[in-house]
Amino acid sequence: MGASPYGPKADAGPPGLTAKLLGFCEELREEGVAVGTSEILDAFAALEQVPWTSQDDFREALAATIAKSQEDRRLFELLFERWFFRATEAEAVERGIGEGEQRQEGGERLDIDELREQIRQAIVEGNDGEMRDLARLAIAAFGRQGEGSGVVGVDVQRIRRTLGLSTGAQQSSEDGAAELPPLDREDLSRFERHLRRELERNLIERTETLPPSRPLAELDRALPTSPTQDLAAVHRAVSQMKRRLATLGHEQRGRRKGRAVDVRRTMRASLETGGVPMHLRYRPKRPRRPEIYVLCDVSTSVTSASVFFLSVLHALHDSFRKLRSFVFIERISEVTEIFEHERDFREIAKRVSSEGGVADVSGYTDYGRVWLEFLTEISDDLDPRSTVIVLGDARTNGREPHAEVFAQVAERAGRLFWLNPEPKLYWNYGDSVMAAYERYCDGAFECWTTRHLENFVNVVAGGTPRD
Amino acid sequence: MSDASTPASVAETKQALAAASYLADESAALVSFLAQRLGKPVLVEGPAGVGKTELAKALSRASGRELVRLQCYEGLDEAKALYEWNYRKQLLRIQAGGESGWEEVHDDIFDKEFLLERPLMQAIASPEPVVLLIDEIDKTDQEFEAMLLELLSDFQITIPELGQISATTMPIVVLTSNDSRELTEALKRRCLYLWLDYPGVEREMEIVHLHAPDLPETLARRLVEVIQMVRALDLKKPPSIAESIDWARTLLLMGAEDIDRETFEQSMSIIVKHRTDIDLVAERVGVKLSSPTQTAG
Fold first, then answer.
1. Model confidence, pTM
2. Would you call A41 an interface residue with chain B, using a CB distance cutoff of 8 Å?
């Protein structure tokens, strides 16, 4: 073959299962699954216990020890398929094992119509083995017609069209004959996966090279963030913030007032004095959890940032129990419950927009009104140990900013921070009234990336808020 | 490490669980098998009512071990989960032994005799191997999770006055979580992970059949299909497996021969337990069922 247009000849890598598994774990790590050394050791221990000939047991044993959440499990499935498929093919190329002409054999016996029926049947029944065999036949039959483009993605679509498989939506009765029932999208995509896999196998066999391995596309991973933001990073920054906030500002707590005697510990201490309670023991003062109020602007002017803000909220809810969150545009609305009952981020985003009830008649933020409403609704709950965090751009659309009301909120709350999704350069230009609010904040920060968020955490922890 | 009761293969574990009336799917059987062979705790996650707790109970029945259960809740602390000194008894001991010296009493009152064993301690100290179920771990604080780490990785507990207490027998540890909050990496690292989901039609039919053997095959299928239809709706609380079993038994009691609209409306409250859910289910599923006039004839 010599120099192939597809790159260097396939490299099977170092031999042996150990190397393959380590390579697999390495790939998982690159996709963001936290695989520790202890997990790898567990995986090896687990594999010793299951028969290695059973693919299901093998995969489940690996998954149970390596993928420790549903999200991880999903990535695991995607990568497992790909990694071991590639490993097998690489090995086959290296040893020169091919199926040669054998795979054509079945294709000649069948004509397209018959094949179409069988494939339909297999798809409806969801029989994987059958589907794989039929996919190979379809490829062979298709190949004889000489329409193969050599590009896997294109071929999959062409074969699918030739076979007249569709989910029913665009089912046009062009020849008026077959009024075929539509197929389930899930089932059909499973068949397509088989097609793709077999086509790839053919291509590898022909060219004796493996296509370069690429990181999973963002779409495959379907992480609920915009491409530039990484939800995991937000979570990391927030959990850091949690530790910092929890240890800050405790000196403001009340003194000796209301200490409770701990009877059990007093009695226990009295053992030293022969059962006479000489020294009173008090219940330890538990460090109070900080109470956090987060107000998040979801108006159109911050659209680009609101996904990020919502993910910050999402992460905060994971870390803090006493957290109340609000979204606002023209008016304010509490969304704590949505976050508490819903774990899936996409679902949250949907529900916040549908049930948030922020009454955006005009779609323009009215900060002044928001402060008034927040103060009347919440002011009784605010006390010196509560922290208020505002996420917003402070663009009032020319309406009254009511900075004096904001000052009252700031006065009642222990600390007040403002995170602004705009670069500092733009603050106070146009209708931004950041300056009016900024002087009441314990800190105001520009924040539109996780890096900014980390910076915010650091400043908060350093205890040097700008006044 | 492996004692006589450890199963030899995944299939054997599955059989043993089935004999304890728990139909495990492939992954559940495999993870239970690994847990026993490797002596590692299992973290089971999944929606409410898919049989997470039941898995632990079944493991205890299948292996003939006693089940020690720790139900977690917010504010659970060491004194309630691990151990506590029985100070009343300690006081009595001091007052009873009037003339014995201080040293003697001191050594004496911090003896195991004065220790109140809470579930975790009980599981560790038990002479017989047990199954330890730590239920709904996600309800506790992260601090409590940290406390569990020593127990989960080394099966030992450190008591300042006594020193380390290590497990003499290896307990099977099952932790369950409803996924209401993310658990710490450290905890997950020490566990095998199992995600349980609602079963498919066939498996749920087997489960219903196992628990309500008198229910005719056709009715059972109908029941499971309806249940799956209800689960597909966006409900506050989708019906659990336990509720399908309850419903099956109810239908038996009612002597129903088919699930028509009337039977469904009468017995719906068994599977749906929320005001708004009931309305939704009646509206979406109820109408799909045939009206009684057609079937009763």
1. 0.61
2. no
